[in-house]
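Researcher: We're teaching a course module on how sequence relates to structure. For the next exercise, students receive a sequence and then see the predicted structure as tokens, so they can try to spot secondary structure elements on their own. Here is the exercise chain.
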Amino acid sequence: MVTLNRAVIGNAILVSCGVLAVVSNVLAEVTARIDRAAVDLNESFILELVVDTNIDAEPDLTVLDEKFYRGQLSQLSNTSIINGQIRRSRTWSIALMAKSVGRQEIPAITIGNESSSPISITINEPANEPPGEADVFITSEVDQTEAYVQSQVLYRFKVYRAVATRQEGRRDPEFTGVEVLVERAGDERSYEAILNGKAYNVIERVLAIYPQSSGEISISPARFEARVLRNGRITGRKVFESESHTITVLPIPAPPADYPDAAWLPARDVRLSEEWSREPGEIAAGEPVTRKVTISVLGQIETQIPALEPPVVEGMNVYADKPDLSRLFEAEGIRGVRREQYAMIGFRGGLVEVPAVEVPWWDIETREWRVARLPSRTIRVEAPETIVVAPPVAEQESAPEEAGESAMLPDGFWKRVSELIAAAWLLTVIAWWWSSRERHRQIREPEPAPIYKQQARFVRAAKKAAMAGDKAGVRAALVEWGRLQWPDDAPRSVGELAARVTSPLCDELRTLSATSYGTTAGEWNGSALAQALRSINIVMEHDEVAVDDPLPPLMPPGT
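Model: And here is the predicted structure for the students to work with:
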């Protein structure tokens, strides 16, 4: 009997372990993601599969073979401890290349008992053809040759290498013509491409250009310098250049008739959304509720998004907080995000209406005005609890006790109290009138200009000082420009600023620093610096990417 019980217990334990294993596999969520939403037919991309637990099962990748070539597969296990809880995950990364153009779907991939969701990716026709059978070459392109003032133009250049290189250096193009603002549109990317049957490693960099006035922009070729390793021998330093480009900048069109004071906001897409700290359908008077309004603009940096005016709500006090600015990187460029936050407090009962939010913007693709809207909202404010006060006694005869107490007070007591209250009220009215008079006397300071406009003013001052040969004026203006660009780590001199920008401005700033403090003081011509200030390109961290190892094959033999 004891033996039977032990056997039963052992079987129960095994069944329990099996059930736990099945439940663990069921709860293992599989997430699939890709590094780019659109690629050319001859370019590779990376598919990542993430499981939120460390399981022994492997993904079934054979479902990819119908539409994609498979490259190298790698995997990574990760363990983290958050608030005392241990979390484990496992990630598989695989290089893929599509077999045909068009909208392709990456099917669901099964790992254990769970599957990922399908993902769509756009496969475009190859945009660039290699110059012959070159081992190294560089290409560039712009997404539009005609743009509006302050609208985004994406400049993309790619370095193709079929051989290993050493001592690399890349230089962004120079922009001449109208003044431009240049921003890096995301991190530098590295992937593989097959051109005419030849495998290339590709390094891609994307810049977002914002012209500040109408006219024309000339973009010089981008450059890539390196020593090439071929057949075990290394060559001297070689220079490779892309093609040049010209962009026509159109003036700002007139505002729409319904919004004559509309701020100029050229973009590809504008979205408005709101969040409340709690459901705002009904709130109590005197209790604050927080509202966050977010405006996200595809094709603009966050500092160029106009501020939203705090709403005027009858029956509520509205207090605005400091806005939160951020940016995202998408396939179509930079998406600036501005979040406005308000504390709203109802001070009387009844229905109040929060007005709609409307933001006019210029659609650069359809070339017409559009309006992003948040609809109005009605909120019921619960009236505050009233305090019931007993009515005063009308006649002295009806309250003999109180009459007796009143008789104990000196004659004229209440008259003097009334006079004192009236005097205090009169003084309060006079003080209020005097304080309001002082407030009206004060001159309201204008709101500070947006950061990019402040920076443009300092750049113009630096140009003017450079053309006049005023070294001190150039240094002061550029240091102020750097303080706005890096508020948490501002450069203290033009020498420090030179290390944060690319050539030719970098070289001219170093020359200015040397002639200002070195042995060659006085030997300086500011016209070259003024010319270099027409475009300012900022050096990002880890700007140079060295590739010292031979390129790995995209597809293993037999694929």
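Model: If you want an answer key for the exercise: The first strand starts at residue 30 and ends at 34. The chain has four domains: 26-124, 136-250, 266-382, 451-532.
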